[in-house]
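Tutorial handout. Part one gives the primary structure; part two gives the three-dimensional structure as tokens.
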Amino acid sequence: MPPSISTSSTPWSQPLKISPTADDDPLGILEISGFYGPGAWLGWLLTIITSWYNLYRKPSARRPQDTIVFLLGTHWAALDLIHRTSLARKVTVEELNGMQGSIAAAFLVTYWGLFCALSQIMACFIQSSAQWAPLSRRGVILLFGAALPSISLANLFRLLGPFFNQPNTTNFERLSSIPALYIEGVEVQFLLLNFAASLGVASIILLCLVILTVVDNAFHTRQGLGFDPFELPALIIASLWLVAPISAIVNVKRTWNPLWWLVGGIFGPFFAMIGFMLPLFPIIFLIFGAYSPSKACYFMPCAPQSIYEWDQAFALCIGLCILVVEIGPDVLKPARRRWRSFWTRSAEDAPLLEGEPV
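Part two.
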């Protein structure tokens, strides 16, 4: 078993104890809610898969309930992350240790939910721009649904801020051992959390700019929520370059330090871009043999529940039902058509086989 974390040494230099026991749970893994358990997480993941499928097959669907379901799960985790982040700022490092597992679980669901929402928003804009059509209802829901997760991730700077203002060991410990985006042997989750928080800030700015642009276009064209395909890249670039100054104004006390503005202006956009490319990190680590799913809390929270527990099985069943209801008809329709064609040909060939005139 990995050694337990001690606040008197350098905890970020040791593997985190993500498989604790009742007597040894330094990160509060056993306190993680069943909402983040394996069955609930897989059920939530199935709703995301269903949403992507319908985005491809039914981009203009008027009732994107699959998208609403996965956004609801993401919003619940985002609210939980805001709540726990606020509590974490009021406790000591020792008290924070028992909260890190719950913070990590809420963060992972929030981040990956926002990542999927932003990806689908871009896909919706590409679809509408290619057809010169108004933004679909799914795109509008995603646009407004990504706001709360973005705010929740940006709120992480309330924990990161003290480290930048007073970069000492105590403040570093506040985030160095949170088991989120964690891969054993590659303890860089402090940097990855910075990237994710920067993505949250950039996402808020981008959503505001996009909403203003879409509404302005709709007001002038009177043709619904239209969008010029050439406007999106410009808005993305603008939102990236606004990450550093807005983060500085809101979270960092050294706002008027010229060095901070220079460094932030140069690296702030790259932090946000890297925050959107975090899915690539496990692939890189896997290539170099440094990634093992059993020793990582990167995509799925390290929750203590078993998938065989009744509540986890129920959550997984709900996700499977949504997947079957949404995808099942499209899968069965070709099979039904082939089956009918087979029986039609059989009925036509039957008289010939019996030697009767047609």
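Part three, for discussion. The chain has one domain: 28-328. DSSP finds 14 helices and two strands in the chain.
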